[in-house]
Design a protein that fits this description.
With 335 residues, this protein is an alpha/beta fold. It is built from 8 helices and 14 strands. The radius of gyration is 20 Å and the shape is globular.
Length: 335
């Protein structure tokens, strides 16, 4: 699939495998962020296994997008012009390369039932999956497939699940709006527009749920962890087996699942904001523990007992520096 402008990167290529028998319509994405390579490597491996006959699709269809953001991938960086996994939606007048990707990607997502989006993260840490909300009829992210999504998440491989994404972003957006109102720096106008957009927290999985599907973001470990592609490959196979798409025994659910809930995001405000130590995702913290300092010396401390998630020493000012999470009391469906 491509409708790129002359001399610009292609949008993305899609490889679809269709079985004779009807069944689930699965889509697997890699390199939504261009420097996260576990997805492309795992998808290449699965496609080779289909090509050699090691794998055969028994029912339904599976679409693979090995490199979703070609521009960012070719540059070896997270973004092309901006973060594709924020503000994801159809745009009548595209402003950047990611807007054009979204205009092709969103209709493609809408043609499927299940999304597995493969990612990795900056700091050291254990693989985990991002889970959607419980069933609800609210305005932020109404959802009716929580039981099905939970049943898939506990079979992907990692033991840790994290929820609370959009609620955390609602809080983060409110803080960014307040800061934007107090700033008149024209150099950050585009960034402020995106970061204060109410849709800022909507990425691939949130969009997929909004059009009637279910979706999991799988964070396969640190970017350079050599086991990351294996985590991603196992998750693809487990997903297809769980959905009854391949002739492989369905995986059993993990019984040692830990669920955490994001409750707060702290943005980096200045290049001089620094961490007190090299934090890793899911490092435990105690209430009042020193996490870092603002450029003016102001202390940034843990707001309670919990865990630090996605600490990013390279965060751009105005963007997410780290998250705070606590244990969740959510009861999961294992069937």
């Amino acid at each position: 699939m491509s409708n790129a402008e002359p001399n610009s990167p292609s949008l993305f290529n899609v490889v679809t495998i269709q079985a004779e028998s009807a069944g689930p319509r699965l889509i697997v994405l890699g390199a939504v962020h261009g420097n996260e390579l576990c997805g492309p490597r795992a998808i290449e491996r699965v496609l080779a296994e289909f090509g050699s006959g090691k794998l055969t699709l028994q029912r339904g269809s599976v679409s693979f997008v090995p490199i979703t953001n070609q521009k960012a991938y070719e540059r070896g960086q997270r973004e092309g012009d901006r973060n594709l996994n924020r503000n994801l939606g159809l745009t009548q007048h595209p402003q950047d390369f990611e807007d054009r990707i979204a205009n092709a990607l969103c209709p493609l997502l809408g043609q499927h039932d299940v999304l597995l989006d493969l990612h990795s993260f900056h700091s050291p840490g254990e693989p985990f999956a991002m889970l959607g909300p419980a069933n609800n009829t609210g305005t932020l992210q109404p959802f009716a497939l929580a039981a099905q999504e939970e049943a898939l998440a506990v079979r992907l491989g990692p033991r840790r699940l994290v929820e609370g994404w959009l609620e955390t972003y609602a809080e983060g957006v409110a803080a960014r709006v307040k800061r934007a109102e107090q700033s008149d720096d024209p150099r950050t106008a585009r960034a402020r527009l995106l970061n204060t957009d109410p849709r800022y927290g909507i990425g691939t999985t949130e969009y997929m749920r909004s059009v009637g599907g279910m979706a999991i973001t799988l964070e396969c470990g640190q970017h350079d962890d050599p086991s990351g592609p294996n985590v991603a490959h196992g998750a693809i196979l487990n997903t297809m087996a769980h959905l009854g798409m391949i002739d492989v025994s369905a995986p059993a659910p993990r019984t040692d699942i830990e669920v955490l809930r994001l409750i707060h995001v702290t943005d980096r405000l200045n290049p001089g904001d620094t961490f007190a130590k090299p934090w890793a995702s899911f490092d435990p913290v105690q209430a009042g523990e020193l996490i870092g300092h603002r450029h003016d010396g102001t202390v940034v401390a843990a707001q309670g007992d919990g865990f630090i998630v996605f600490p990013n020493t390279k965060a751009m000012p105005g963007n997410e520096w780290f998250y705070f999470a606590r244990r969740s009391d959510r009861s999961l469906n294992l069937d």
